[in-house]
Specification:
Mean pLDDT: 79
Number of helices: 5
Helix content: 55-70%
Number of strands: 0
Strand content: under 5%
Radius of gyration: 48 Å
Amino acid sequence: MDQQKLRTLVFEKTGVRIDIDDPIFALVALNEAVLAEAVERHVALLDDATADLAEQADALLAAGSVCRYGAGERPLATPATPLMPLTPAVAPPLAEKRLIALAGGAAVLCALLVLAGQALLLKPPAALPSTVIAKELTPEQALAIRHGEKLNKIVQKLDPKTRNAILAEMQKP
């Protein structure tokens, strides 16, 4: 760890000056030690994996497997047990087809039975009337409507300024 190089790098990137006696260098040393230990562990794991791979390759060579990678040839892959059956696919027997058809028919019949039961047993709620309409108006209501219609005709005949003032007053509660 070159402290002078680190000081220069920090100053160039951030503009902050660091002394050689600064405690931050203790953290740098600690980080370096932890990183070295982690690298050693990973190197040991890689060495173990490489040794295992070498043992497996030796076992394959001892079993009579031929490796010609050095000569530029690629060996043909011949698995010990076939991955796919060598016999062509056989159609299911007639009894299995009947069983599948029977199960499908039962499923469709059950679905229809459920839908029919819902249609018969579940009735939608009765719609509530949104407004109640009276068949006849009371005499007071009829008089108020006639009075309102007369006032509307009178207001329409007034000049615009007065009409707007009256309409503004009518909007107030």
